[in-house]
Amino acid sequence: MNLLLKFNVILLSVFGLALIPVGLRSHSLLQKNARAQVIENARLMMDASLAMRGYTVRQVKPLIASQLAEKFLPQSVPAYSATEIFNDLKKKNPQYNYKEATLNPTNPRDRTVDWEADVVNAFRSDTKKTELIGERQTPEGRSLYLAQPIRITDPACLVCHSTPDKAPPSMIHAYGSNNGFGWQLNEAVGAQIVSVPMAVPIGLADTAFWTLIQSLVGVFAVTMVILNIMLNLIVIRPLRKLSDLANRVSTGEMDVPDMEVKGRDEVATLAGSFNRMRISLVKALKMLEEG
Fold first, then answer.
1. What is the pLDDT of residues 50-61, one digit of tens each?
2. What is the pTM of this model?
3. Can you tell me the distance from the alpha carbon of 153 to that of 241, in angstroms, rounded to the nearest whole number?
């Protein structure tokens, strides 16, 4: 194995060993940033739902309060308003979802499915928990969900959800007396859950990762070419010439030309030493012949 090949093997080995931790670290950071972006989108959706709820309570409900005695209007319910807004959003963005999942809802569409019930029960078992973030696999791919508990902190809410006899007759007429009752003060009855797809940010993170790896490999390849050219000009070619001259001298050919010395590096020092050694050897042979 010649010197240039040894140099390339060592350089490739060092690059390969360095690329592994760099690649793993870069991939981890990019995936982490992608997940943080998804969480930020989920929090934005949650804030939007809370804003819609507040708008309904402050501005919509007072306007239709006089009609509620005769007819129940779901538009007066904050959860209904927030859900309707996101249902319109979902028409163009089907992978985004918002639900006020409830174990025992007044409106059947709000009833929890299996995984949503697990989220609600997590809030019920830990009264200090205010947020839950997780991932789940859907038919469309990985999805991140962010959930906040729905707790009954306002006694006024129990007018509609304690017992059927205390609820507005218009609500009983609309939804019946079997669902949405028996709620307790400070109880977590459900959870606001927003689901955001992870496919796009994760895909962008993967693209950025492979672009980074390809760039590193490209820079390394260019560096290797330049180093090989410089090594060949500065080291390999002079050493090859020096080796050829030394071989000729070893076979008795003493009239070889001096090795040209340029610079003050190790190769130049070696060439100078070779020239002096050849001259000394020639003088020694002449002295032996004369003797």
1. 898 888 888 887
2. 0.70
3. 91
